[in-house]
Amino acid sequence: MLELPFRDRAEAGRLLGAQLAGRNLPEDSIVLALPRGGVPVGFEVARALDVPLDVIVVRKLGVPWQPELGMGAIASGGVRILDEDLIRQERISREDVEAIATREEQEAERREQLYRAGREVLELRNRTVILVDDGLATGSTMRAAVKCVKTLQPSAVIVAVPVASWQACAHIREEADECVCLAVPEPFRAVSEWYQDFRQTSEAEVRDLLTQPAC
Which of 27, 69, 81, 183 is the most exposed, having the fewest neighbouring CB atoms within 10 Å of its CB? Predict the structure, then answer.
């Protein structure tokens, strides 16, 4: 029986990897983790499945006066997801939305270059892609990741996370081929409350895990 909170992201990744290992996924599957916190989870999943690990850089668009509250997300290829209801509710101007989106697009490009460090982007066409993060609160960043990956014509997109809100899972199931989540606790306020150790993953840790052989 699953016990919460998880000790840390590595433990959550091992448990998630064990769950996915029993699904007889195609041998050419690939794990794409959302940096930074999703990478330690994705590393353990990729190791359990004996498949390659890479990243997909997605950036949350935070409300100007409450950055931790996501009003949307952006991903590579010009993908943009906006929570129009929240934007109207908070009376956020289009100018503010555009300014934040532009800033986050620049940051996404910087991180893409930093994490990839000259490595070629892995081919996703006709492969099963497993998108991994450490958890989903609103699910906006993961929805952007799904939309981005689908433009690259994979055979299937599976979202896999250790913990999520039921609302986020419902949104993801509408867009991905499958959503695998170990726990959907209620009430759900933040991903961090379901981990004993939720210290920030550094950029150095991300780069180190991406250079280690996961498979």
Answer: 27
